[in-house]
Every structure is written in structure tokens, then in C-alpha cells.
């Protein structure tokens, strides 16, 4: 099967030397890419900047901003059988990118942000993707309720939900505990290396 995976953070430029980003390490998405290749799938990894090595055998397209990630996904998603959107895409981006380095003046500075396009929500609606669609949710409260709302709002088959208020799992950790929220049920995936969760997620696809 052909599988597209998004991973890592995005970088939203403010001026030539500054950007907005987040704490995503990319580990979960890269682990899924690795597990998918080992299971014999054809994998395209679309990733924001990370410190990780690209797994052997994976096709790789590096991106920086949410807008760039959207363009690459919109181009390649239609031919895919499954997609895992593990990237921590910025929800907001600066309304303007200053072409010059912004100088400090005064005691306050207000940065105007505008919403980015939701790549996951566009998969069904705009890109007309019909394959198996997996989203991720990082929550600090009401994990299952919020994850189920995302599942429905974004037309996913599965939301992998993490409690990011816990420091022992998620973000930079090698381990993850997740709620797997499907349309008809919820499964608990007990704390384990991200690689084990990746293998489990890929095993659901069959051959
Ligand atoms: N996502 C995306 N494009 C965006 C924002 C999010 O593709 N512009 C995807 C992420 O890759 C993830 C899922 O949407 O798979 C959940 O993102 P999250 O930020 O947790 O949820 P939001 O829907 O943005 O809601 P909120 O931030 O309000 O919790």
C-alpha cells in the first residue's frame, strides 16, 4: 500500500531570522514511517525540521511552513491508500513576513497571526481523499471527548490521542500512551516505546 505520513513541527517565519514553532520532535511520525517500510509498504514522509535520520527506504520531502506542508500533501495524497497526520502543524502563522529583521522599539510588540489551513480537515473535504485517514490529537484535558470531536469534524477513521500534560509520554519522549479513538470504539494503548505503537498502527492496515 502507498502511505503518506506527515511529521515534525512546522516553522512559521516572522522575519529573516525568527520563526514560530513547537515542541514536536517528529519521533512518532518517523517511527510510523519506519514500521510501514518494514511491513513492505511504499512510504512518503513529509516532514518539518527535526534532528532525526530519515528511515532507510522512505521517500522524503522536507518542508518548513504549514503552507508548504499543505501544498505537498495536496499534491501526493490522492494516490495514497492510507495517511497518518502526525505533524504538529502550526494553527496560526504571522499575517505578514517582514522582509527585514524586525528592530526592537518600545516595551511591547504585537504580532498579528492568522489561521493556517487545516491539512487533516482538508484531506476529505478539499483533496477528496478516500483512503484510511489517521489524525493525532494532543490534549491536556477531556482526552476522549476532544479526540472523538476531532474524529468527526475532520472525517478521520482513527484519532491517536495523547495526554500532553504528562511529561513521561508524548513530545520529546521515546514512549507513548495513547487512546485510539475509532468511529465505533475506543482502545487504550498502554505506555510503550513509540516504535511499538507505530508497529501496531501499521498492522491495522493489513497488507
Ligand atoms: N493538523 C493539520 N493541519 C493543521 C492543524 C492540525 O493537519 N493546520 C492535524 C495534525 O497533524 C493532527 C490533527 O490535525 O493530526 C490535530 O491537530 P490539533 O492541533 O491537536 O487539533 P486542532 O484541530 O488544531 O484543535 P485544537 O488545537 O483546538 O485542540
List the keywords.
alpha/beta; Rossmann fold; two-stranded antiparallel sheet; 5 helices; globular; binds cytidine-5'-triphosphate
Describe this entry's structure for a reader.
- With 207 residues, the protein is α/β, with parallel strands linked by helices.
- The protein has one domain (2-97, 107-203): CoaB-like (Rossmann fold, 3-Layer(aba) Sandwich).
- Helices cover 25% and strands 30% of the residues.
- It has five helices and twelve strands.
- Strands 5-4-1-6-9-10-11-12 form an eight-stranded mixed β-sheet, with helices on both faces. Strands 2-3 form a two-stranded antiparallel sheet.
- Strand 9 (132-139), helix 4 and strand 10 (158-163) form a beta-alpha-beta unit.
- Helix 1 packs across helix 5 (194-203).
- The longest helix has 12 residues, at 27-38.
- Bound molecules: cytidine-5'-triphosphate.
- Residues 6, 66, 85, 87, 89, 91, 116, 118-120, 135-138, 150 line the site of cytidine-5'-triphosphate (CTP).
- Cytidine-5'-triphosphate binds at residues 6, 66, 85, 87, 89, 91, 116, 118-120, 135-138, 150.
Can you describe this structure in just a few lines?
The chain is an alpha/beta fold. The protein has helices at residues 27-38, 66-76, 119-125, 143-153, 194-203; strands at 2-7, 12-15, 18-20, 42-47, 59-62, 82-85, 92-94, 113-115, 132-139, 158-163, 175-182, 186-193.
